[in-house]
Amino acid sequence: MFNGLFNLEGKCAVVTGAGRGLGADIASLLAQSGAHVYLLSKDAGKLDDVAARIHRNGGACTPVVCDLLKDDQLERAFDDLPRLDILVNNAGTNIPARLADVTTRDLDFVINLNIRATFLATRAAVRKMLEGEATDDRVIINISSQMGHVGAPDRSVYCMTKHAMEGLTKAAAVELAPRIRVNTVAPTFVDTPMTQPFFENEQFKSWVFDRIPMGRLLSSDHVAAAVLYLASPAAAMITGTSLRIDGGWTAQ
């Protein structure tokens, strides 16, 4: 009974930003749990590496080269799916800077990937999900951040986009119930290739660890486990919620 609650056998999932780091680990765990995972990234070589890892572990996946900032590629990626049960909007970025120093180019890039692409992928996924027979076990999971609940210096744009993601999640959850559940996973800083350069700055490292009561960074495996939980039948009555895995950061 317990194991069955986390069984994704027969499900079709899409993970954006699946070519490395957190996205790759999420895709791997979903595949390990029985889903056929479509891996979306613009980097074909990295997709092949992730696909090979999944296949070695007995999972099923299909790499899909897709630049989410190009609308035609995004739409085609979802149109070509045979069906869709689970979407994980994982692709995102951050370009830290003091607010007064943020360039318009960086502002547009972060907004376009973190908000616009997430919205368009969600819209395409909802259209695909609603094509099928009426069931209530389809799921959208947005990878947000603790910064979707608080503020921080040098992260005005990132915080803005993650707050927007939390708002989209709540609105979509209300509109799409009961057929589609929509939630976010909101991690603290995760040890990934994207965050590692930040922690070379000792001042920044101290600032982060001083705000995490648990006293350590989050592993990508724990984020993937949270995604699996929200994607699974175990979370059948959870929608419009943000699952914060932040070591207590936002409890203060």
Please tell me about this protein's structure.
By secondary structure, this protein is α/β, with parallel strands linked by helices. It has one domain: Rossmann fold (3-Layer(aba) Sandwich). It has helices spanning 21-32, 44-56, 71-79, 104-131, 156-176, 202-209, 220-231; strands at 12-16, 36-41, 60-65, 86-89, 138-143, 180-187, 242-245. β5, α5 (156-176) and β6 (180-187) form a beta-alpha-beta unit. α4 (104-131) packs parallel to α5. The termini are far apart.
Describe the structure concisely for a colleague:
This protein has 252 residues and is an alpha/beta fold.
Task: Write down the overall mean pLDDT.
Answer: 95
Task: Flag low-confidence runs.
Answer: none
Look at the helices and sheets and give the structural class: alpha/beta
How many β-strand stretches?
Answer: 7
CATH superfamily membership: NAD(P)-binding Rossmann-like Domain
Helix content: 40-55%
Cα shape: globular
CA gyration radius, whole angstroms: 17 Å
Strand content: 15-25%
Annotated CATH architecture: 3-Layer(aba) Sandwich
Return the CATH class: Alpha Beta
Keywords: Oxidoreductase
Family: Belongs to the short-chain dehydrogenases/reductases (SDR) family.
Protein name: Short-chain dehydrogenase/reductase SDR
InterPro entries: NAD(P)-bd_dom_sf, Sc_DH/Rdtase_CS, SDR_fam
Question: How would you describe this structure in keywords?
Answer:
single chain; 252 residues; alpha/beta; Rossmann fold; 7-stranded parallel sheet; 7 strands; 15% strand; oxidoreductase activity; oxidoreductase
